[in-house]
Write a structure and sequence with these properties.
The complex is a heterodimer of chains A (103) and B (303).
Chain A (H helix, E strand, L loop, with lengths): L1 H29 L3 H26 L3 H32 L9
Helix pairs in contact in A: 1-2, 2-3
Chain B lengths: L1 H22 L3 H21 L3 H25 L12 H17 L14 H10 L4 H9 L1 H21 L13 H23 L8 H18 L6 H24 L12 H28 L8
């Protein structure tokens, strides 16, 4: 009963993660300027991927596999916001405010 | 079925990358396309059950991207745009090379065809006594090839040292707090991962080349943000020292009256492990040497 419960929660997590990734892709195409697109991409990477990974970890059979997947998701949670922060900082520095419509 | 669809998807995507590669004339765009191509080939290797090659492709893709971006920053201050005129000699050479590659691809076995020669798959467990067939072929059956591949990598490092003028000039640290803190947090994890790959080379995918590349990538990331006090001559000595370790493993066989690279004195498993450690040292220090040679003249304060 407990195992089935956990695997069902994992299914919900995977579904949520896929939904977030999909909306991130739509946002990358539909949003008007660079920073909005960056927001969408970071959302998909920073929340969508860990949600999918947690779901997979809940559905996996062995506990070592689940622990490895959770470690991986922690690294993604740390690295992705840093990368998007650096990209946004460089974009803010390198582009004059008057040019922001061209992006 | 799904796996085949994914394999064809990755092949198609890398083909698209090549098409855009031909169309584009901006060096930065070409760098991004190159890393996208590397990503798709990496996924393709993983789908084709070659995780060793996929790991190497992933790390080398990252390193090549870093090297290319630093070269662009150093060589061209503004966006470099290619000459519109075609270079006829290069075009002929490229077409000839492509034709030769396509011609020789007819000799490859059909995708998914059964393997008839099972020698390595059958005898690795008995002769080498390690589970990973790839590591056994790399370090024991084809020990000569791997030894001289390591030597070639060291020679590449010497070539970069000759071409570039590496002076020990001081570079200022970046003022960006967040990336420094995150790098300080990530750096030990990367080092542990590199050693995990190095020492589990006989059991799981991985080995000396992959571990050395990951080690070099972590050191390069660290040195992009903090000041680095490493002389290039020490790196070159470390690289030669790595090759020397591999040679010594082979020479032990000669001194005990057997052939060069005969592992039966120390035992296959120990010898393979020592050889992989030598490969890792050589690859890591050569990659750091190439990074130093390319990046030393650019300033870090822009990040």
């Amino acid at each position: 009963m407990m195992v089935e419960m956990i695997s069902f929660i994992g299914f919900i997590f995977i579904f949520l993660g896929i939904f977030l990734c999909f909306s991130a892709v739509i946002g990358c195409f539909r949003f008007p300027d660079y920073f909005c697109k960056m927001h969408a991409a970071t959302l998909g990477d920073a929340i969508g991927c860990p949600l999918i990974l947690w779901g997979v970890a809940m559905q996996s059979n062995s506990i070592t596999t689940a622990l490895k997947i959770i470690l991986l998701s922690l690294i993604i949670l740390i690295i992705t916001p840093t990368a998007s922060y650096l990209l946004n900082k460089i974009a803010l520095k390198s582009i004059a405010p008057s040019d922001s419509e061209k992006l | 079925m799904l796996e085949e669809i994914l394999i064809y998807f990755t092949i198609f995507s890398s083909f698209l990358c090549v098409l855009f590669f031909i169309r584009s004339n901006n060096l930065l765009v070409l760098t991004i396309l190159n890393s996208a191509f590397s990503l798709f080939t990496c996924v393709m290797y993983l789908l084709l059950d070659a995780p060793d090659v996929a790991m190497t492709e992933a790390v080398v893709g990252v390193l090549v991207t870093i090297f290319t971006i630093f070269t662009i920053k150093k060589a061209y201050k503004n966006n470099y745009v290619f000459d519109e005129n075609l270079n006829l000699i290069m075009l002929t050479l490229t077409i000839l090379l492509a034709g030769y590659l396509i011609y020789s691809s007819f000799d490859l076995s059909v995708f998914g065809a059964p393997i008839f020669d099972h020698y390595y798959l059958n005898n690795t467990g008995k002769e080498i006594e390690i589970p990973s067939v790839v590591a056994a072929i790399l370090a024991s059956y084809r020990g000569y090839d791997t030894l001289y591949e390591t030597l070639v990598i060291t020679i590449a490092g010497i070539g970069v040292l000759l071409v570039s003028d590496i002076s020990n000039q001081q570079q200022s640290e970046t003022s960006d707090i967040l990336s420094k803190v995150i790098t300080r947090f990530i750096f030990p994890i990367l080092i542990i991962f590199a050693f995990y790959i190095l020492f589990h080379g006989e059991i799981s995918p991985g080995g000396g080349f992959q571990a050395g590349a990951i080690l070099a990538a972590s050191i390069i990331i660290h040195s992009m943000l903090y000041e680095i006090y490493c002389s290039s001559s020490y790196l070159l000595r470390a690289s030669i020292f790595g090759v020397l370790i591999y040679f010594l493993v082979g020479i032990i066989g000669i001194f005990s009256g057997l052939e060069f690279l005969n592992y039966s004195i120390l035992g296959q498993k120990t010898s393979i492990l020592i050889a992989e450690i030598g490969i890792a040292i050589a690859v890591a220090s050569t990659m750091c040497l190439i990074y130093l040679g390319i990046a030393n003249a650019t300033s870090k304060s822009e990040l």
